[in-house]
TrEMBL record:
Record-annotated Methyltransferase type domain positions: 193-294
Protein name as it appears in the record: Uncharacterized methyltransferase At2g41040, chloroplastic-like
Name of the gene: LOC104785290
Organism: Camelina sativa
Highest taxon in the source lineage: Eukaryota
Pfam families: Methyltransf_11
């Protein structure tokens, strides 16, 4: 991909490179000289120029040409091919080292040129929620989302909570991962978003497989994401160059440009989403043509549930959004996904569909 290089006159000795054309010709960019601060400053005047979105090819290794003569990294401003503003979906401008890996993302600042909103990794994760920089307002979501924000549930999740799913027919993480990988074969080499990743049980497996150019572990729960970071830190097979990012976002407001993502995984998540239709519509929006969605969830009742009990398992009586096979297929199809397939074992369902 062509690179437009622009050397800025700045008190900083670092050269500035604009990557991933098109460059915004009528925008001006200003940089703070502290390139190591995760809270980087941008300034950009508004522009009517709409960027094109190149396909999502990502390199986590800085090319030689990106190094200054003394061997240090240049400060780079790029229009990210991966992240978009959760308010307006404009691709975010990024200042900092390139690549989808924990260190590069922690050291980068992101800014929406249209909304002027900035996003950064103030905590253990990159916060790309609409509420990211609000000081006085904290959104309270339905209980199925709030439950997982608790530190205790986040701590217990991979220490017993998740194992209980086996009683409802979930085959277990290793087998679920193997099954999902089968469906994702065509998406290999691309960007995979693990939506509602929890503490990163599957995100870590996808990242370790080395089959994707980037794996985004995404969840709404701050504590799940902290736990995810902790597991990564304590796992020797991960290093600073592993292609994984930990991002906070709401599934009904995914921070990715339309048609930019190759694969979306959502393990044991659909029943927790406040609106499965909004979530799946959003997943369909971010998938590229040919992109694959794989999800698992609990069915409202299993094929072996006696008829007499089924009426008592209506959605109105339950706090989780437990759907049935036909409903999941219906939602996927009505959101524009095709080639729906599923696999059922007791109350466990794994389903897949594709963006046409
Ligand atoms: C049961 S856990 C699933 C974790 C993991 N994917 C797995 O397969 O075990 C459900 C996850 O959905 C997340 N979640 C709930 N509401 C969400 C929302 N609105 N946006 C994003 N994630 C959400 C929760 O924080 C929780 O981590």
């Amino acid at each position: 991909m062509a690179m437009a290089a622009l050397t800025a006159s700045s008190s900083s000795s670092s050269a500035i490179t604009l990557l991933n054309k098109p460059f915004f010709p009528n925008r001006s960019y200003f940089f703070s000289s502290n390139s190591h601060s995760p809270l980087l400053r941008f300034s950009a005047s508004s522009s009517s120029v709409r960027p094109r979105f190149p396909s999502a090819a990502i390199s986590s290794v800085a090319p030689e040409s990106d190094l200054n003569k003394n061997g240090t990294s240049k400060i780079e401003i790029e229009e990210t091919q991966v992240f978009a503003c959760p308010v307006c979906y404009e691709p975010l401008m990024r200042k900092g080292p390139s690549g989808i890996n924990l260190q590069a993302i922690y050291r980068s600042g992101f800014k929406c040129g249209r909304c002027n909103k900035t996003y950064s990794s103030k905590d253990e994760y990159l916060d790309l929620t609409v509420t990211a920089d609000l000081e006085d307002y904290d959104e309270v979501k339905p209980i199925t989302t709030e439950l997982f924000r608790s530190p205790l549930v986040s701590f217990l999740y991979e220490r017993g909570w998740r194992q209980n799913f086996k009683r409802s027919g979930f085959p277990g993480p290793d087998e679920e991962f193997r099954m999902a990988e089968e469906y994702f074969k065509e998406a290999e080499g691309g960007v995979l978003v693990d939506v509602s990743c929890g503490s990163g049980l599957f995100s870590r497996k996808f990242a370790k497989s080395g089959k994707y150019s980037g794996v985004i572990a995404l969840d709404y729960s701050e504590n799940m994401l902290r736990q995810c970071k902790e597991f990564i830190k304590n796992d020797d097979t991960f290093d600073n160059s592993t292609n994984i990012a930990v991002v906070r976002a709401d599934v009904s407001r995914l921070p990715f440009p339309s048609g930019s993502v190759d694969a979306v995984h959502a393990g044991a998540a659909l029943h927790c989403w406040p609106s499965p239709t909004n979530a799946i519509a959003e997943i369909c929006r971010v998938l590229r043509s040919g992109g694959v969605f794989v999800g698992t969830t609990f069915l409202r009742y299993s094929p072996s549930t006696p008829w007499i009990i089924r009426p008592f398992q209506s959605r109105i009586l339950q706090s989780y959004n437990y759907l049935m096979q036909d409903e999941i297929k219906d939602v996927c199809t009505s959101c524009g996904l095709t080639d729906y397939e599923d696999y059922i074992q007791d109350s466990f369902i794994m389903f897949t569909a594709r963006k046409p």
